[in-house]
């Protein structure tokens, strides 16, 4: 995964960093954690705290650093099972159970700790003794909720945490304290910890749950604020840093590239310009995907690597329909020059999608991207306002990387008032508008370019015909009224184009 972290501190006084074992989290933190400090990782059950702790320790093991996992809430066998589910072997990692078989009280109903035998002080001493025995560089303490219950009052709890913090500092340990947020009002740890990493799991009414991370506090580190999506799957946690376009400026030579249709090139003032995005807007079935495919095919024929992100249409349907219109894409897909992704918005977070585009550009050298459609992408976002902000960063990033981008936005309604889920026209560099109209008892298509920031585009309206011979653009339809209102009427004398025998409707 390619990432560009915030600029770290420079100079001889810059503190070294220690990796968390998660590339995306290191990116968010601008390089990782400051070593020999105590950090709090909080989150609800299932958010991935244990997995994060194991990744942190395993990263240290790969670097020859001794690690220690102290558990009050899970057994060593459970931890090994968690690791095995991710394909990890804990090997020589030290596991210390504070709640062993000898510590259980059969008669106690409210706690696994016998109140007369296992007090907070003894628990703390056991931790210290184990640390002195193992001499770890990295420590994970799981979890603080049990320690909080043993303390019984906030003052005693705070004193014990302070004692542990000073103890770990004296032994040059980097420590992750895991907490499951059982006490929502408890802010003692936030003030004591060097940094606070908050993991959240959000259940949706439909589709996969969403997870996100927020760095609440990090002393002495310039980190990327806000929420960042992440996934918890086989292999561990993968985090997707929030895209900030300003961190990815690049240089490229601007060039005008043909769409593959001379008529569409003429409407756009020459074609598509590298480092710009074009929005194709229109109702369902009018040919938005076909136009975007024609533009992409032209890029493929020039030898450019391309990626097409399908939200609405199946892959087989997409290939078959493109071939019926004279656009054969399978050879490019088979060679690897074209990658087509079928996206399920119910299963993919916006941050993960943005990372997919970044990987395509930075790892595979993709220079042409098509997204079909933004309507489905909107469903992955919590609201229109956030989609606008997300798309602003995403399009700015692609433009700065010299990528030619085509976006498809569907509109509701065929006649009368035509509406869109969200207005993104102000973010686009060029906007192509498609409309249905009636002529001599036949449903026809009209195309016009209503905006271009890079060229003097045509202001005329033309007939658009889709058939087995591809895309054809007719002569200007002089005498057209009402196209933009959704109730077009044609009173001119320009002859309509004759469809081919297998024209697409």
Notes on the structure:
This protein has 505 residues and is of the alpha/beta class. It folds into two domains: 23-242, Rossmann fold (3-Layer(aba) Sandwich), CATH 3.40.50; 260-490, P-loop containing nucleotide triphosphate hydrolases (Rossmann fold, 3-Layer(aba) Sandwich), CATH 3.40.50. It is built from 14 helices and 23 strands. The chain has helices at residues 23-28, 49-62, 76-85, 120-134, 144-151, 154-170, 188-192, 262-268, 288-301, 315-324, 330-335, 350-362, 374-379, 384-400; strands at 38-43, 67-71, 94-97, 138-142, 174-179, 195-202, 210-218, 227-233, 236-240, 256-257, 272-273, 277-283, 306-310, 338-342, 368-372, 404-412, 419-420, 430-439, 442-452, 462-467, 470-476, 480-481, 489-490. The strands form four sheets. Strands 12, 13, 14, 15, 16, 17, 18, 19, 20 and 21 form a ten-stranded mixed sheet that branches. It has a nine-stranded mixed sheet with strand order 3-2-4-5-1-6-7-8-9, sandwiched between helices. It has a two-stranded antiparallel ribbon with strand order 10-11. A hairpin with a 2-residue loop joins strand 18 and strand 19. The longest helix has 17 residues, at 154-170. The chain is elongated and about 95 Å long. Mean pLDDT is 86; it is low at 1-5, 8-12 and 101-118.
Short structural description:
The chain is α/β, with parallel strands linked by helices.
Count every beta strand, where a strand is a DSSP E run of 2 or more residues: 23
Can you tell me the residue ranges where pLDDT is under 50 for at least 5 consecutive residues? 1-5, 8-12, 101-118
CATH architecture of the largest domain: 3-Layer(aba) Sandwich
Overall number of structural domains: 2
Strand content: 25-35%
Derived structural class = alpha/beta
Q: How much helix is in the residues?
A: 25-40%
Query: What is the CATH H-level superfamily of the largest domain?
Result: P-loop containing nucleotide triphosphate hydrolases
CATH C-level of the largest domain:
Alpha Beta
Main beta-sheet strand count, sense and barrel state = 10 strands, mixed
Quaternary class: single chain
Distance between the termini: 42 Å
Shape: elongated
Please count the helical segments. 14
Radius of gyration using CA atoms only: 29 Å
Q: CATH topology of the largest domain, which one?
A: Rossmann fold
Mean pLDDT: 86
């Amino acid at each position: 995964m390619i990432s560009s972290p915030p600029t770290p501190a420079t100079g001889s006084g810059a503190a070294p960093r220690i990796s968390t074992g998660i590339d995306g989290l290191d990116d968010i933190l601008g390089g990782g954690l400051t070593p020999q400090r105590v950090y709090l990782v909080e989150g609800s059950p299932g958010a991935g705290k244990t997995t994060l702790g194991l990744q942190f320790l395993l990263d240290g093991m790969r670097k020859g650093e001794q690690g220690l996992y102290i558990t009050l809430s899970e057994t060593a066998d459970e931890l090994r099972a968690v690791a095995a589910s991710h394909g990890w072997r804990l090997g020589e990692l030290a596991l210390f159970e504070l709640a062993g078989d000898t510590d259980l009280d059969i008669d106690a109903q409210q706690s696994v700790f016998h109140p007369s035998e296992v007090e907070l002080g003894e628990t703390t001493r056991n931790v210290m003794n184990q640390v002195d025995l193992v001499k770890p560089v990295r420590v994970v303490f799981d979890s603080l909720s049990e320690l909080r219950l043993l303390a019984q009052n906030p003052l005693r709890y705070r004193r014990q945490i302070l004692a542990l913090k000073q103890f770990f500092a004296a032994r040059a340990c980097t420590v992750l304290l895991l907490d499951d947020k059982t006490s929502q009002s408890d802010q003692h740890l936030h003030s004591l910890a060097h940094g606070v990493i908050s993991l959240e799991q959000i259940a949706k009414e439909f589709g996969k749950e969403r997870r996100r991370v927020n760095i609440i506090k990090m002393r002495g580190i310039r980190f990327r604020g806000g929420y960042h999506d992440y996934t918890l799957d086989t292999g561990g946690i993968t985090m997707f840093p929030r895209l900030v376009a300003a961190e990815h400026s690049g240089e490229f030579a601007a060039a005008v590239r043909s769409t593959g249709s001379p008529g569409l090139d003429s409407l756009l003032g020459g074609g598509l310009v590298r480092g710009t995005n074009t929005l194709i807007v229109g109702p369902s079935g009018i040919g938005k995907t076909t136009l975007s495919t024609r533009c992409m095919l032209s890029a493929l024929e020039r030898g450019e690597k391309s990626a097409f992100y399908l939200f609405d249409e199946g892959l087989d349907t997409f290939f078959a329909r493109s071939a019926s219109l004279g656009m054969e894409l399978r050879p490019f897909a088979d060679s690897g020059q074209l990658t087509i992704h079928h996206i399920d918005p119910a299963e993919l977070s916006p941050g993960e999608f943005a990372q997919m585009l970044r990987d395509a550009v930075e790892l595979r050298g993709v220079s042409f991207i098509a997204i079909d459609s933004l309507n489905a992408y909107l469903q992955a976002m919590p609201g229109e306002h956030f989609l606008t902000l997300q798309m602003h960063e995403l399009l700015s990033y692609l433009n700065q990387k010299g990528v030619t981008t085509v976006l498809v936005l569907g509109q509701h309604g065929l006649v009368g008032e035509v509406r869109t889920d969200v207005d993104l026209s102000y973010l686009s560099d060029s906007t192509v508008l498609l409309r249905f109209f009636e002529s001599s008892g036949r449903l026809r298509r009209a195309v016009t370019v209503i905006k271009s920031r890079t060229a003097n585009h045509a202001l005329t309206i033309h007939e658009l015909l889709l058939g087995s011979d591809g895309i054809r653009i007719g002569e200007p339809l002089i005498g057209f009224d009402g196209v933009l209102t959704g109730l077009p009427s044609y009173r001119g004398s320009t002859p309509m184009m004759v469809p081919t025998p297998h024209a697409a409707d």
